[in-house]
Amino acid sequence: MKTPRKTLLMMSLLLSMPLFAGIEGDAERGRTAAAVCAACHQADGSGMHIPGGESWPRLAAMDAGYMYRQLVDFREGRRTNASMMPFAAMLTDQQLKDVSVYYSQLPATPGQGGKDAAADLLKLGQRLVEQGDWERYIVPCGSCHGPASQGAGSNFPGIAGQHAGYIERQLLDWKQGKRDNDPQHLMLAIAERMTEQDIRAVAAWLSTLPAQ
Amino acid sequence: MKTNRFQWLLVGMLASCVILPVQAEQQLRFPVNPPQPREGQLLHTPPTMDDLEAARMHPELKRVIRRGHDLFMNTQQLRGKNVFNDMNCSSCHMGEGRMPFASPVWPAAVVLPNYRPKNDHVNNLEERIAGCFSYSMNGIPPEYGSDDMVALAAYHQWLAKGVPIYQLGDYYGRGYPIDQPSQEPSHERGHALYENNCAICHSSDGSGMRVKGETHFPAVWGDLSYNWGAGIIRNFTLAGFIHHNMPLGQPYTMSVQDAWDIAVYINSHERPQDPRYEGDVRATRARYLESFHKHGFYGTEQQGRLLGDHRNTGEKPILKPEVLRARTFTPQ
To answer: What modifications follow translation (chain A) (predicted)?
Structure first.
C-alpha cells in the first residue's frame, strides 16, 4: 500500500520540476551545485576567452539538454577534457541536470575574442557563417545551428556569441580527431574540411554576434 | 566501394607500422565523391554573387538579380502569400541553386521554353518556377511578370551565364540522377534508416523543426511539406535527392539502396492534396499516371491506407492556383 503513495509523491515532485528539453532539473538546486563550476565558467555563466590558452565557454542561456549531454559525455569519456572530467564525475546525475537547467536560465553574456580580429579575417568568417563554401561542401553554420546560429533544440547548440577561443579549439579538436561526440558526426564532417584559417575566421566572427 | 575500403585498410596498415613524428595530412572521414563528368557532358560552373558585384552590368539589373537570390534563399518571406509550407527554393536546390546533383536551376534557363509532359504544353521559365510554387511550396505563385517573378527568373538566368541556349544536351549534375536499387525498396528498412539518419533534424513524425516560430529543418511529410503534385513525391526523385545531398554535409553516405528505402518510407506518408485533384484520388492518379504518378504512391494503398484520399490543402486556403491552366497556343 506504500507504493501508490510513493508514486504519487514522486509524480508531484516531478510535476513541480520544470522540463527543459527533456531533462528534469531544478535551477535553485543547480545554483548551489554550480559553485564548483564558477571558478572557470564564472558565477554569471559568462566563461572566459583566454588568448593563447584554454578558453572556457559561456554557459549562460545555452540549451539545458545540450549541456547535460556534454556533461554526461565528459563523465563517460565520450568527450575528453582534462579540466572538465573531474567535475563531471564529481556531481551526481541529478546535479548535472540541475546545473544545466540553472545555466540555461541565466541571461546571455557577450562573446569575446573577435572584436580585435583583422578585418579580412572577420570578413571571411562572416562569409563562411552566413553562406558557407559549397564548393568545399562547408555549409552555412545556421543551416544546422538555427536562425542567426543561435541554436536549434538540444542537438544543435547556439554558437553565436560564444567565445572565439572556445569555438576555435572545438573545431580544431574535431578536425584533428580529438572530439567526435557530435550526433551522426554532422559537425565533424564539416570541421575536417575547414582550414585552420577558416576556423579562426568563423570563431572570431561568431563571437561578435548576439547570442539571443 | 571495395577500392575505398581497400585504401582505408592500406592506410591503417601503414599507420600502424610507421610512427609518424607529426600527424600526416588527415584522411577525411567524410570525403565528398560526386560522380565524375562523362564524355560529352556539358560542365558549367555558375557565377557567384561576388561575380555579380564585379560584373559589368547595369546597377539596377544587379539589384534585381540580388532580389531574386534573396527570394530564392529565403522564400519564407512570401509565407502566407505565395508559400504555404516550410520550404524555400534552396531547400531542394541547395547551395544557392548552383550545386551539381542538387538540381541546379540554371539548366531551366537554357532549355525553356520547352514541352513539359507534366502539364502537356510548352512552358517558359516563369511557368516552370510557378510549378515549384504550386507543388513543392504548396503555394500560389507570384503573378507572371510580377516583380518577384521577374527577379527570380533573372537570378536563374544569371546562373546560366555563358551556357549556349537550346542545346538540349546532357548537363553534368542536372537533377538528382540515381540508379535503380538492387532490391525492392523497403518501407521497413526505410523506417529504421530514417530514424537513425534523418529524424534528428526532420523529426520522427516528419514535421521537421521550427525554431522561434520559423522554419528551420523542413517538414518531409504532413501539412507543412510539399504536396502530392510535387516532383519529389516521385520515389526516384526523392531517392536521388537523398543519395546526393543528405544528411546535410555528408553526401553519398546513404547508398543507392538506402536512399530508395528512405524515399519510399517518407513518401508513404500523407501530405497536402495535389492541386490537380478533381474529387477522386484514383481518377486523378489515372489521369496523370504516365507523366507523373506512376513514380509515386499517390492514389495507392500503402500501409493499409489509401494515400491522397482527402481534401486537405494544408495551410493553403485554396486547392488549385489559377495559373495552373491548360494552354493551347491556337488562334482564338
So the answer is: Binds 2 heme c groups covalently per subunit.
Residues B130 and B235 in one domain: no
Q: Rounded CA gap, A33 and A91, in Å?
A: 8
Among A147, A190, A192, the residue with its CB nearest the CB of B212 is A147
Residues B294 and B208 in one domain: yes
Count up the domains in chain B and report the number. 2
The parent domain of residue B218 ranges over: 187-306
- Measured CA to CA, the distance from residue A118 to residue A55 in angstroms comes to 20
- Rounded to an integer, what distance in angstroms lies between the CA atom of residue B1 and that of residue B10? 14
Residue B136 lies in a domain: yes
pTM across the whole model: 0.90
Please name the residues between 10 and 39 in chain B that touch chain A, using a CB distance below 8 Å: 23, 26, 28-30, 32
With respect to residue B137, please indicate whether it lies within any of the assigned structural domains.
Answer: yes
Give chain B positions within 8 Å (CB) of A155.
200
Q: Residue B126 falls within a domain, yes or no?
A: yes
Please give the biggest Cα pair distance in chain B.
83
User: Domains of chain A, with CATH numbers?
Assistant: 2-104 (1.10.760.10), 119-207 (1.10.760.10)
CB-count exposure of residue B136 (10 Å: 0-12, 13-18, 19+): buried
Residues of B in contact with A153 (CB under 8 A): 209, 211
A185 is annotated as contributing to ligand binding: no
